[in-house]
Amino acid sequence: KRLILIGPPGSGKGTQAPIIKDEHCLCHLATGDMLRAAVAAKTHLGIKAKEAMDKGELVSDDLVVGIIDEAIKKPSCQTGFILDGFPRTVVQAQKLDEMLQEQGVKINKVLNFAIDDTILEERITGRWIHLSSGRSYHTKFAPSKIPGADDVTGEPLIQRKDDTAAVLKSRLEAFHKQTEPVIDYYAKRGIVANLHAEKRPKEVTAEVEKVLSS
Ligand code: AP5
Ligand code: ZN
């Protein structure tokens, strides 16, 4: 399967992706996680991406298209993948179509994490992440079993620099202006499934499974 997860910041893409990945043996490609790793490692890519990310704006199409182009060619992604946070502009979606055409494959489903903007601030400001794996926790909705640390490795959790109420505003603006048109792009192909992303994590997982088994 080749899946795309689209939704505003805090809608649950990064929470559901690892579950879908394990269930369906897919590789999880999250451009946000890859960019944050590049920023932390101070690579050439990270240095270029940091300013836009800190402001809650989108990084340039060329940079992210380059990352995905490289990633989807990996042997581990040949049997299928989950794109989390990509494509986020119509230009990125068109470039993705070109890449997939070269490989003779196509996207099966686009999961649209539909949710009201008003719910997102509490989710975003309460989030703690494990940087190297991208795993998300939440002080209220998904606390770690080891206080202040990752459940799997025990390593410390951090808060994302862009997870403030002020930066969230810009991220939401970018979502509505630049990313919502991507949903229409795929809706024209009839491959978009709308999820009730305001529900509890387990209920969202059940909706995803229903869509993927149909
Ligand atoms: P990215 O990392 O992709 O951030 P985002 O899209 O803003 O999405 P989030 O990671 O904030 O939300 P999520 O849906 O994964 O939520 P999560 O599951 O963690 O991108 C960051 C930046 O990188 C961008 O701003 C941009 O600068 C750049 N970038 C990335 N990709 C790009 C691209 N393609 N083009 C250009 N620039 C790009 O959940 C959030 C919290 O809520 C967690 O604490 C979680 O525990 C909790 N939670 C999850 N589900 C539920 C639920 N059902 N009920 C209650 N709580 C829940
Ligand atoms: Zn995420």
Automatic annotation (TrEMBL):
Residues 127-162 form the Adenylate kinase active site lid domain. Its EC number is 2.7.4.3. One of its GO terms (molecular function) is AMP kinase activity. InterPro entries: Adenyl_kin_sub, Adenylat/UMP-CMP_kin, Adenylat_kinase_CS, Adenylate_kinase_lid-dom, P-loop_NTPase. The keyword Kinase applies. It is an enzyme of class 2 (transferase). The keyword Transferase applies. Gene3D superfamilies: P-loop containing nucleotide triphosphate hydrolases. Pfam families: ADK (PF00406), ADK_lid (PF05191). It catalyses: AMP + ATP = 2 ADP. Keywords: Kinase, Nucleotide-binding, Transferase. Catalyzes the reversible transfer of the terminal phosphate group between ATP and AMP. Plays an important role in cellular energy homeostasis and in adenine nucleotide metabolism. NCBIfam families: adk, PRK00279.1-2, PRK00279.1-3. Belongs to the adenylate kinase family. Monomer. This is adenylate kinase.
